[in-house]
Amino acid sequence: GQQVMQIPQYQHVQEGEDFTTYCNSSTTLSNIQWYKQRPGGHPVFLIQLVKSGEVKKQKRLTFQFGEAKKNSSLHITATQTTDVGTYFCAGPRISNFGNEKLTFGTGTRLTIIP
Amino acid sequence: GAGVSQSPRYKVAKRGQDVALRCDPISGHVSLFWYQQALGQGPEFLTYFQNEAQLDKSGLPSDRFFAERPEGSVSTLKIQRTQQEDSAVYLCASSLIPSYRGRETQYFGPGTRLLVL
Measured between alpha carbons, how far is B7 from B109 in angstroms, rounded to an integer? Predict the structure, then answer.
């Protein structure tokens, strides 16, 4: 079945340093979504990428979708304490019943050293 | 509030007890999803409703798990004869459009943290 892996599993950075998490799917994806989950919280949708090679920016966050639509990355510039949390990518796949369902990656937990 | 709500937020059950977890999706949202999130893992799909119809229950781990959404709004996930391995956070998410159209944004509730002793 479809697998979505993320690396690294954990990342500790000094406040102000950059951070990148990488997402790799075993299958080609129609789109990829990114979510952020704060400690003790629930996943919050960040963005969706659809096109091959697409790059989107949200302030200090840059999201990329690979040319082959099997990998993606999230880069945060100049991290702040508010960036703490676990970042998940999620890829959809069509079930046998016709609905699309998300397969979440393993997540990258970001901690910030003040 | 206009978000997805879930209750209870925390549930402690003795092994063998039945539990019922409730999800109130965003009003008007057609799609409703249940996920199970084990500690340190990403959410794992359990089941999907389009309005009141349960179209996909392929992720339910056993026949002890049962979900319903009888009127196409509130949903309940029931776990019978709970086991320790059922301990996890159970997340509910809703989206505006039917899932087969794809590319929908899912809005997650705060989850119910279930601990089975």
Answer: 10
Instruction: Note whether A91 contacts B: Cβ–Cβ < 8 A.
Output: no
What is the per-residue burial (b if ≥16 Cβ within 10 Å, else e) of B82-95? Answer: beeebbbbbbbbbb
Q: A91 pLDDT exceeds 60?
A: yes
Nearest to A31 among B100, B103, B106 (CB): B103
Task: Express each pLDDT in B21-56 by its tens digit.
Answer: 999 999 999 999 999 999 989 999 999 999 999 999
Q: What are the beta bridge partners of residue B90? A: B36, B112
| Residues A48, B48: C-beta atoms closer than 8 Å | no
Q: B110 to chain A nearest CA, in Å?
A: 5
Task: Name which of A50, A94, A107 is nearest B42 (Cβ-Cβ).
Answer: A107
Interface test with A, best of B45, B49, B51 (most A CBs within 10 A): B45
The two structure tokens encoding residue B113: 């943290």
